[in-house]
From TrEMBL:
CDD domains: PRX_like2. GO terms for biological process: cell redox homeostasis; cellular response to oxidative stress. The lineage of its organism: Bacteria, Bacillati, Actinomycetota, Actinomycetes, Pseudonocardiales. Thiol-specific peroxidase that catalyzes the reduction of hydrogen peroxide and organic hydroperoxides to water and alcohols, respectively. Plays a role in cell protection against oxidative stress by detoxifying peroxides and as sensor of hydrogen peroxide-mediated signaling events. Its EC number is 1.11.1.24. It catalyses: a hydroperoxide + [thioredoxin]-dithiol = an alcohol + [thioredoxin]-disulfide + H2O. One of its GO terms (molecular function) is thioredoxin peroxidase activity. InterPro entries: AhpC/TSA (IPR000866), Peroxiredoxin_BCP/PrxQ (IPR050924), Thioredoxin-like_sf (IPR036249), Thioredoxin_domain (IPR013766). It is an enzyme of class 1 (oxidoreductase). This is thioredoxin-dependent peroxiredoxin. One of its GO terms (cellular component) is cytoplasm. It comes from the Bacteria. Keywords: Antioxidant, Disulfide bond, Oxidoreductase, Peroxidase, Redox-active center. It comes from Amycolatopsis rifamycinica.
């Protein structure tokens, strides 16, 4: 099963579980036009340091010291699409990246004081979406979506400290911190297939 098929299954489950009016709000939000210029291949990312979910900070320069890094920007642990994607990457991507000498890192705007994700690769907290906004990935949540999320029990003010989210994205960065691959998903119910990421890393 592809990641796309699995994510479609999540959408079906969400549709069945939510009141129709709330599902319609979220469905409209994920199908909106991004209207944002994202970072492009060839751009250099400034070195950054972010706290880890386990309390250990990490710098981009350290992550790419021995090879490229795959940076996975995701919305948060509360997002079922993100959880499925990260588990898929751990199962299908992490072992292959290790063979290629590449690091896998997940980054979200969540505060680092939440529950520790059950993942075998670093999970970093980009509080305030500083790094994400530098890549064009951060955006404010609309009032109607904010109301729907609060109704569903997700208060981003508590989780992130701000009502801002990030477009899910995969960014492959080489040892010089230059973007060699970037795939952004304004439709948060879609994500980058593992094989596409591996192809990008193998091409370096």
């Amino acid at each position: 099963m592809t990641l796309e098929n699995a994510l479609t299954g999540v959408t079906d489950q969400v549709r069945d579980a939510l009141p129709s009016e709330l599902f319609a709000v979220l469905e409209a939000d994920r199908r909106r036009a991004a209207g944002t210029k994202f970072a492009e291949v060839g751009a250099e990312i400034e070195d950054f340091e972010l706290p880890g979910a386990d309390g250990v900070p990490a710098k981009l320069g350290e992550l790419v010291a021995d090879g490229p890094a795959v940076l996975v920007f995701y919305r948060g642990q509360w997002c079922p699409y993100c959880n499925l994607t990260l588990r898929t990457y751990q199962r299908e991507l992490l072992p292959e990246l290790a063979k290629l000498g590449a690091a896998l890192v997940a980054i979200s705007p969540q505060r680092p004081d939440g529950a520790l994700p059950d993942l075998a690769f670093p999970v970093l907290s980009d509080v305030g979406s500083t790094v994400a906004r530098g890549l064009g990935l951060g955006y404010p949540v609309s009032d109607v979506v904010r109301e729907a999320m609060v109704t569903l029990g997700t208060d981003l003010e508590q989780v992130n400290g701000t009502w801002e989210l990030v477009h899910p994205a995969v960014v492959v960065v080489d040892r010089d911190r230059v973007i060699r691959f970037i795939d952004v998903h304004p439709d948060f119910a879609t994500r980058t297939e593992p094989e596409r990421i591996l192809e990008a890393v193998r091409s370096l």
